[in-house]
Amino acid sequence: MFSRVQRLAPLALNRGFATAAPKKSHRLMKSVLALGAGGLAIWYGWDSIRATKFYWWCADTAMPLVRRLDPEKAHRAGVLIAKYHLAPVDRSFYPELKTSLMGLDFNQCVGIAAGFDKQAEAINELFKSGLAFLEVGGITPKAQPGNPSPRMFRLYEDEAIINRFGLNSEGHSAIVPRLQKEYLRQQKHRLGLIGVNLADNKGTPDPVEDYIEGIKNCGPYSDFMVLNISCPNQVGTTALQQESRLREMLDRIYAYLNTLPHHAPLLVKLSPDLLPEEREQIARLVLEYGVDGMVISNTTVSRPDSLKSAAKTEKGGLSGKPLKEKSTETIREMYRLTEGKVPIIGVGGIASGEDAYEKIKAGASAVEVYSALVYHGMGLVPKIKKELSELLEKDGYANVSEAVGKDVEL
């Protein structure tokens, strides 16, 4: 026979476990809730942290380390930093930089050019970094790898880049769902405008049909569409700027657009290497068809004698500081030829508010940056906006739109 103590011992132990287990579970639950609440507090306050001067300083300080990477890997790192909410946040706002063109309201006139976020991975986060608009792409209908690596080269001494990516794209099937998600997000909480840079596939039997496919698939999820007919890194694309080819393209594209109840504004992106007669022909066609705008300019295949870097002999399109004057001159001439009737987005060699201001006075209504970010980091964006605002005030302009084309005689 068991003694009374022996009989009661298991019962006491069971009772002990019965009371101890809930206490332990309760403590665990409180810890999980505390961690979750802390995590949520950090998450919702993360944008505020990324907006601090210290965070911007850290981001700028890290740029020399990023530049030690292979250029294409550094570019990829930049996209991933933005995609995963690590890019700094810019909350500066200048009312005088607000502008309207093509029926769209730009909350600031500074955006980022096509080529950075090629696959629509970081749209919202780039807006948070102070950019008012961007161009996704170039986007081709079918996925294509582009040209073999290496295909991106830094020209340090010249603050320039040569690239021959060859329109590497994940194609409509991968990119359109991301576009749709981001476009719907922007409809609810507008931070910026989404442009899609449309391109044709390498070796396509019908380039125009590729652009129409881009309009069909990407157009519904964009604020504006850009026909990239000037990429120098894919055989045959720049030939689409020839008068007969461009007329055929616009004929077919507008025949399709006219079947739609409404569509996003349509722009063409032009080369800085156009001959004077080619500029005149394009200007006439743009006016004739009522093209909504022009993006000027793409990269150049020319190589100025001033280039110092060893990589200057690499094939591809040159962008950055050496492109600035050529791009600005093309803007000025196309503004004159279209009598200031067609809005221009200026891009090419912008690294300061003064550079942006030069393009605006030459005829650009808004500007895009890209290559300079490789050398100066995202801190360049608020710097350009601040400097541009100061230049407008100095010259007595209440709004950036008042300065557009002021250096051009019509």
Q: Please, could you describe this protein's structure?
A:
- With 410 residues, this protein is an alpha/beta fold.
- The protein has two domains: 1-50; 71-403, Aldolase class I (TIM Barrel, Alpha-Beta Barrel).
- 45% of the residues lie in helices and 14% in strands.
- It has helices at 4-50, 53-66, 71-83, 123-128, 171-188, 207-218, 243-257, 276-289, 324-337, 353-361, 371-376, 380-394, and strands at 99-101, 104-106, 110-112, 133-139, 152-155, 160-163, 193-198, 224-228, 266-270, 293-296, 317-320, 344-347, 366-369.
- Helix 9 (324-337) runs parallel beside helix 10 and helix 10 packs across helix 12 (380-394).
- The longest helix has 47 residues, at 4-50.
- The chain is globular and about 75 Å long.
- 43% of the residues are buried.
- Residues 1-20 have low confidence and may be disordered.
- This is Dihydroorotate dehydrogenase (quinone), mitochondrial.
- It catalyses: (S)-dihydroorotate + a quinone = orotate + a quinol.
- InterPro entries: Aldolase_TIM, DHO_dehydrogenase, Dihydroorotate_DH_2, Dihydroorotate_DH_cat, Dihydroorotate_DH_CS.
- Keywords: Flavoprotein, FMN, Membrane, Mitochondrion, Mitochondrion inner membrane, Oxidoreductase.
- One of its GO terms (cellular component) is mitochondrial inner membrane.
